Amino acid sequence: MPEHIKPYDNFNIPIVNTGNRLVPRIYLNCIRLSKGEKHTYRLKEYESACVGYSGTFDITVDGIKFSNVGQRKKLFEGKPDSVYVPADSEAVIEGISDKAVILIAGGRYEKKLSPFRITQDDVDTVQYGSDETKTHRKIYHILGQKNRDRTGRLLVSELFTVGAGGWSGFPPHKHDEDVEGMETAFEEVYYFAFNPENGFGAQFAYTHEDDFGPVYHIKSGSTVLLDRGYHPVCSAPGYEMYYFTVLVGKTKKHLQQNFEKAHEYQVHTIPGIKDMISKFR
């Protein structure tokens, strides 16, 4: 059953550690560094991406240095700047700006590949939906289709509701089993923020079409773990919603969503949603 971790100060300790009981293939940490402060990590069997949430940092991966990563001062201003860290690699992150916030997304993967940077220009952007359908959304794909030949089974994206309020993860869909031609099994974790910061939303999570909930009250800093089931989410009117999404495939590199039959017809009515779906494959 999905789980909601309420906002808290994690003191740079992983929010979702390796081998988690619900989503054992996923790792998530949010680290905050002052200028000159360092954080070191190594994930033996997990590839990862260090994503600049806000502020600037340097990162050295197995002796290879990537300088001045993170080009946006605030989360809701501009695209992310990131670095891919292969499995079983030592990553040393150092704060360059007065305050740097970095999200580390990890996914279980056995092979050790090569590190690389995903600049703002490398980010694959998709915008779809409409104000009329309350589904207007923008997605920044950090690890996805564009660099799939350089990574394992880890997909990392940032998602924004465009405007104030509205729905995301809609129509309701799931991806918890491998069914040829219909669905691929992926675990998923969300990390939320709102603009203004006191905003809030609701995360739905149900494993069968006839279920009722649970529904989680989400705020800035909320983390939701999704091992199975349908999981639409909405933001309250007047607030822009952001969520950092980490997806890790059980056996596949491409995500195929299985839409709930009662609402699947909206895939054909929401503007641009088919382009969004194709970018996750």
Mean pLDDT across residues: 94
Q: What is the helix fraction of residues, given as a range? A: under 10%
Largest sheet: 7 strands, antiparallel
- The tally of strands reads 22
- Uncertain residue ranges: none
Decide which structural class fits the backbone. mainly beta
How far from one another are the termini? 25 Å
* Number of separate helices: 1
**Could you tell me the strand content as a percent range?**
35-45%
- From the alpha carbons, calculate the radius of gyration and give it in angstroms: 18 Å
The largest sheet has its strands arranged as 1-19-16-21-13-12-11
Give, in order, the helices and strands.
EEEEEEEEEEEEEEEEEEEEEEH
Quaternary structure classification: single chain
Q: Judging from the principal axes of the Cα atoms, what is the shape?
A: globular
